[in-house]
């Protein structure tokens, strides 16, 4: 019991020293500062997370000195991930908060912003007391790479350095004797930062307000096979003339004129003509004279873009396999039926005409029997190509049966459908066929006030096509002509 009381007293004393160190930094409840915002933007960018923070853990709250991805100034210490992080000196990682007994009931996990992943590197005050964290978070579980862990440690050291610099600057005002020590610390900080930038797994750069390079890291120099100073003073347009460069310039102007961080996908091309894709994060910053500059880092996503393109191509191929007839390249029967219903629904809604041309190859069975099925297949392939080249963009064609092809002609009246059928019929006659000329019988039908459904319209086109067959084949017959003939026959029978 006595030992537990001594531990509680020691813990309380340590907490009081920690809080005293926090107040010595003079950061609580101060305005946001660009240098901390930039470091947190860099942390989130390196770790590929939507959220990043520099937090200070107070007595009963955690306060955000810098925040990216979450508009909040403070939260209760009771729900703080960072209050756990400052209990250790190394990186504190929660890969999936919903699987962690310490956090799965946490309001920040259950409600907005539904944090699932957290990684925080404790930030020490001047005396080594852990007063806050540099941390990143995400709404999905994830794992950090060794490089990302190292980056968080370096950035936490950068934050600590900047806090120490703040204290040193205050002391400098009180004692000029500290001037050389501060300058040495600044040089060390610059060296650490350049070391980090030159070994980071991304392109890092700074540009002036005119878009000219002021700095780029070794990774960028090596990637583009240039020296450390070869591109200094040059603009993107100097390096990539045309639309590639102009697109990057537009993004730069958005940052410099809008004064805000952006993320964009950009492309560059090397001397061999290979195009590279980059995910770029760019942010405004100020130089020592208060002049606006642009800072940025770009991650190579060329392989990711290529994989996405391959996936899209594969999905398109699967869709075509599911909807296309393998022989003609036209829609298969199932997809054609769906398209017919869709077009007929448009007829009902917009009261616009819809025409159908039903094509049937003449003597197709005889051709297959005489020359073989390979000959018949070649005829269907050529017909599919011919139909596709004859249609308009809004027209659709599909294989309806063995040697039957249906062509849907939206917004096309009776006369327009006959003109299309004539062009297609003439094209069949002009086509170069491998063995012997091919002919086809075409039936044409157009919606009218009495056309109740798509099946009726198809039946009318089918009647017209069979009338063409009965009349000698190799011709076009419209359903209207069939009706007129049947009416004439009926009148003749009645008069007899």
TrEMBL record:
<feature type="domain" description="GGDEF">
    <location>
        <begin position="352"/>
        <end position="481"/>
    </location>
</feature>
<dbReference type="InterPro" id="IPR013656">
    <property type="entry name" value="PAS_4"/>
</dbReference>
<protein>
    <recommendedName>
        <fullName>diguanylate cyclase</fullName>
        <ecNumber>2.7.7.65</ecNumber>
    </recommendedName>
</protein>
<dbReference type="InterPro" id="IPR029787">
    <property type="entry name" value="Nucleotide_cyclase"/>
</dbReference>
<dbReference type="InterPro" id="IPR035965">
    <property type="entry name" value="PAS-like_dom_sf"/>
</dbReference>
<feature type="domain" description="PAS">
    <location>
        <begin position="189"/>
        <end position="259"/>
    </location>
</feature>
<dbReference type="InterPro" id="IPR043128">
    <property type="entry name" value="Rev_trsase/Diguanyl_cyclase"/>
</dbReference>
<dbReference type="Pfam" id="PF01590">
    <property type="entry name" value="GAF"/>
</dbReference>
<dbReference type="Pfam" id="PF00990">
    <property type="entry name" value="GGDEF"/>
</dbReference>
<dbReference type="InterPro" id="IPR003018">
    <property type="entry name" value="GAF"/>
</dbReference>
<dbReference type="InterPro" id="IPR000160">
    <property type="entry name" value="GGDEF_dom"/>
</dbReference>
<keyword id="KW-0175">Coiled coil</keyword>
<dbReference type="Pfam" id="PF08448">
    <property type="entry name" value="PAS_4"/>
</dbReference>
<feature type="coiled-coil region">
    <location>
        <begin position="165"/>
        <end position="192"/>
    </location>
</feature>
<dbReference type="InterPro" id="IPR050469">
    <property type="entry name" value="Diguanylate_Cyclase"/>
</dbReference>
<dbReference type="GO" id="GO:0052621">
    <property type="term" value="F:diguanylate cyclase activity"/>
</dbReference>
<dbReference type="InterPro" id="IPR000014">
    <property type="entry name" value="PAS"/>
</dbReference>
<dbReference type="InterPro" id="IPR029016">
    <property type="entry name" value="GAF-like_dom_sf"/>
</dbReference>
């Amino acid at each position: 019991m006595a030992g537990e009381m001594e531990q509680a007293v020691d813990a309380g004393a340590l907490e009081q020293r920690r809080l005293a160190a926090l107040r010595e930094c003079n950061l609580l409840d101060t305005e946001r500062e660009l240098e901390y915002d930039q470091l947190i933007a860099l942390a989130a960018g390196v770790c590929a997370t939507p959220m990043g923070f520099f937090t200070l853990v107070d007595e009963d709250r955690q306060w955000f000195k810098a925040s990216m991805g979450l508009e909040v100034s403070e939260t209760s210490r009771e729900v703080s991930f960072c209050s756990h992080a400052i209990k250790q000196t190394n990186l504190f990682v929660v890969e999936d908060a919903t699987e962690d007994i310490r956090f799965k009931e946490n309001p920040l996990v259950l409600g907005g912003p539904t944090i699932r992943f957290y990684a925080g590197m404790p930030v020490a005050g001047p005396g080594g007391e852990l007063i806050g964290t540099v941390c990143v978070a995400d709404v999905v579980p994830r794992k950090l790479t060794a490089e990302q862990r190292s980056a968080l440690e370096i950035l936490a050291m950068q934050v600590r350095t900047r806090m120490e610099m703040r204290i040193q600057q205050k002391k400098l005002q009180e004692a000029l004797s500290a001037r050389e020590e501060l300058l040495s610390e600044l040089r060390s900080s610059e060296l650490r930062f350049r070391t980090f930038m030159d070994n980071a797994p991304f392109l890092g750069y700074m540009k002036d307000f005119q878009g000219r390079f002021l700095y780029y890291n070794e990774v960028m120099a090596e990637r583009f096979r240039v020296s450390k100073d070869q591109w200094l003073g040059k603009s993107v347009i100097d390096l990539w003339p045309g639309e590639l460069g102009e697109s990057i310039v537009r993004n730069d102007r958005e940052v410099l004129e809008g004064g805000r961080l952006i993320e964009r996908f950009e492309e560059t091309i090397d001397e061999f003509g290979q195009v590279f894709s980059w995910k770029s994060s760019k942010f405004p910053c100020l130089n020592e004279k208060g002049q606006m500059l642009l800072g940025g880092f770009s991650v190579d996503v060329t392989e990711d873009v290529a994989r996405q393109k391959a996936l899209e191509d594969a999905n398109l191929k699967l869709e075509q396999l599911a909807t296309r007839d393998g022989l003609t390249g036209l829609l298969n029967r199932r997809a054609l039926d769906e398209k017919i219903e869709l077009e007929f629904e448009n007829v009902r809604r917009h009261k616009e005409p819809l025409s159908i041309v039903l094509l049937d190859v003449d003597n197709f069975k005889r051709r297959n029997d005489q020359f073989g099925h390979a000959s018949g297949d070649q005829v269907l392939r050529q017909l599919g190509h011919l139909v596709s080249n004859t249609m308009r963009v809004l027209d659709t064609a599909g294989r309806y049966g063995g040697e039957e092809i249906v062509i849907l002609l939206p917004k096309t009246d009776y006369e327009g459908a006959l003109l299309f059928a004539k062009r297609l019929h003439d094209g069949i006659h002009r086509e170069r066929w491998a063995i012997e000329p091919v002919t086809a019988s075409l039936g044409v039908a157009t919606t009218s006030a009495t056309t109740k459904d798509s099946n009726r319209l198809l039946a009318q086109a089918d009647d017209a096509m069979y009338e063409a067959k009965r009349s000698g084949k190799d011709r076009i017959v419209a359903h209207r002509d069939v009706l007129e003939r049947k009416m004439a026959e009926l009148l003749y029978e009645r008069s007899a």
